Amino acid sequence: MSDSVIQLNHVTKRFSGHTAVKDLSLSVPRGEVFGLLGPNGAGKTTTIRMIMNIIRPDEGQVTLFGGAGTGRELSDRIGFLPEERGLYPKMKVAAMLAFLGEIKGLAHRDAMARGRRWLERLGLGAWMEKRVEDLSKGMQQKVQFIGTLMHDPELVILDEPFSGLDPVNSQAMKDVVVEFARGGKTVLFSTHIMEQAERMCDHIVIIARGEKVVDGKLADIKAESGRGHLAMSFSNNRQAATPVLQDRRLIAHVDDYGAAAEAELASGADPGEVLRALVQAGVGLSRFEIVEPSLQSIFIAKVGPGAATAPAQETVHA
Amino acid sequence: MHKLLAVIRREFLTRVRTRTFVIGTFLGPVLIGGLMLLPAYFAGRQAGNRVLVILDEGSNGFADRVAQTLLLMGEGQFETSVVAAEGRDSVVLDSLIAITDPKAERVAGIDGILVIPANATTRDSIRYLGDNVSSLSEMRSIRNAVTQVIRAERLAQAGVDARVVAEANRPISFTTEKVTNGTLTGESGEASFALAYSMSFILYLALLLYGVQIVSAVIEEKSTRINEVLISSLKPFQLLLGKILGVGSAGLLQLGIWTGTAMVLTTYRTEVAGLLGIPAQTVVGLQLPTVSPALMIVLLLFFFLGFFLYASAYGAVGAMCNSVQESQQAAMPITMLIVVSFISVFSLLNDPNGTLARVMSLIPFSAPLVVPVRYSLSPLPPLELLAAIVCTILGVLAVAWVAGRIYRVGILMHGKKAKLGEVIRWVREG
């Protein structure tokens, strides 16, 4: 138990119309980067809100740090970036951060100093005495990010941390998260962008329609579903490849990106056979590789295209 | 506690630094000063300026006596001259009226004409013509002077000695002193009532001014979407309490500055008036009362209980709404409760220990406005006072509990307005 920072036991949450989270159990090990993945409306935010004790589960229990208390009681040890970002627009940046630090238990002076250091570090040093509303959206996100991490929490929970960020800012935030994880901290973040999860996570859980469909170490999941995945890139005569890729005796499933494709071999098929067929068809190949499946393809295979359509808008009730 | 202080400080500083607060704080004293000094300023300008012509239609020296009395009683407010009509009453009157026209050549600069007929003592009314007939105090002075002279004349005609008449006319002033629980407190009854009433008025003002700010502070949190960060670190009740105390202390500061300036202005009103060149004795003064410690405790206790009660209710309203427009409608019932309670205070003045007064002292929503005024009029029996305090505290706790529950759920609501049924469910289910 002591090695599990967050433990969910058969947690269910229903809203007036539908079940947002259904009998969900998961365990976040200490010191790992944990990805909570799922399409829009799968119940990621609801799950995180239950972890933070913002809303209560109808059934089941949430245990944090082996039962030390609820999310709010332990909030000084947790950094939480909610899906709904928000700052006081009229406050000065430094004062805003000092306040965010203080409600996490820091002393005013300490919070002020930490905020200043972080702002310098993320290139916002010149904006300290500006009002929050004068900052660009990206800068505001950074400020919020600092507010989440400045009290040096043991556990960081980030709900869609990279949404709405440009690649440069996204990179900067990612670096900070990775550094946190390297320092032995536990990170849980939710996303529906698979590439990010793939690069950062040790452990993932995929949920769809409130139910868990995948749970495990990323490496294990890939190895498990990774018998015979092919990655191809085409240099010319792309259209000639289509009949080969649609041959169900060779290929079970294909993610076609146009100039590239990822395919899962049909059971019993031989990769050499596929290559031969492609060459015979006159397809110009710049890449042909037997690979582990991408998280994206695992996700789509497990969740199915139907899950991409979100159910009714989530609303909060007691 | 540390977190609560952080919320209070943020709320306080944010409010105090707004332009509205600074301007409002500065304008208050200006307004108070204006209210005290302006009437005096205008009165001062007119003092000694009133030129009255007394038109004597053959009254045998009666008009002269009226002129003397007016000079004596008016303390230099009136200048008088007596004009004999010599039988041509209407012609003289018309010409006098003509020269009151400021556009006409003002030979004498006449403000008004008092017509004393030959048979003044047997008449029921005396005519006065002038451009100052709407000035109540001037009309009272003139009427008093005429009445006094006519009364003396009537008594003299009935054979009463002039000295007896003078003695009978000597004015009586009236002083009041208050007896509390069988001892003479030395307070002036009017003064302590005025204090309790103005405290009740200040509470009324504070509730309306700052209560609404709590609504908008809660809505701001929703519209900026910061609430989720706050609610994951703070207990909803902590947050609501911090808001109430933060807005409350900013309000208290503003009220303190206003009250302080009002007191300073009152104490040094003659000096201030002197600086502005206004005759000091004409400045409207507020008597600063000496207040018994018991009344002060009752005042402050109910002031804070009342503020807390209504502020919590306003906080809950804010949590139910998504926009300021929406909240104005939703806050109406609470605002009505305040207004009705305040107006009801007037009806208690004549019967401070009647059934209505007793009942209203036990209702938490009206007690904060009613009890201090009642107490200043005649102290409540200890048991009744205790009952009022207990009821109000229970009311505050109940409202805070309900508000906390509404707040906890409501603050995370976005987009749609909560229906009454939903709100009741939030409170029931917590």
Low-confidence stretches of chain A: 307-318
Largest beta sheet of chain A: what is the strand line-up?
Answer: 5-6-7-3-8-9
Topology order of chain A in helix (H) and strand (E) letters: EEEHEEHHHEHEHEEHEHEEHEH
Structural class of chain B: alpha/beta
Question: Could you tell me the number of beta strands of chain B?
Answer: 6
* Oligomer description: heterodimer
Mean pLDDT of chain B: 79
Rounded radius of gyration of chain B (Å): 30 Å
Compact summary:
The complex is a heterodimer of chains A (318) and B (430). With 318 residues, chain A is of the alpha/beta class. Chain A has helices spanning 44-51, 93-102, 108-121, 137-149, 167-182, 194-200, 218-225, 241-245, 271-280, 295-303; strands at 4-14, 19-29, 33-37, 59-64, 78-81, 155-159, 186-191, 203-208, 211-217, 229-236, 251-256, 260-265, 284-291.
3D structure, described in words:
The complex is a heterodimer of chains A (318) and B (430). Chain A has 318 residues and is of the alpha/beta class. Chain A contains 10 helices and 13 strands. Chain A has 2 domains: 214 residues, Rossmann fold (3-Layer(aba) Sandwich); 65 residues, 2-Layer Sandwich (Alpha-Beta Plaits), CATH 3.30.70.100. A 6-stranded mixed beta sheet of chain A has the order 5-6-7-3-8-9, sandwiched between helices. In chain A, α2 crosses α3 and α2 runs parallel beside α4. Chain B is α/β, with parallel strands linked by helices and 430 residues long. Chain B has 2 domains: 269 residues, no CATH class; 121 residues, 3-Layer(aba) Sandwich (D-Maltodextrin-Binding Protein, domain 2), CATH 3.40.190. In chain B, a hairpin with a 2-residue loop joins β5 and β6. The longest helix of chain B is centred in the middle third of the chain and has 35 residues. Chains A and B meet through α2 of A and α1, α8 and α16 of B.
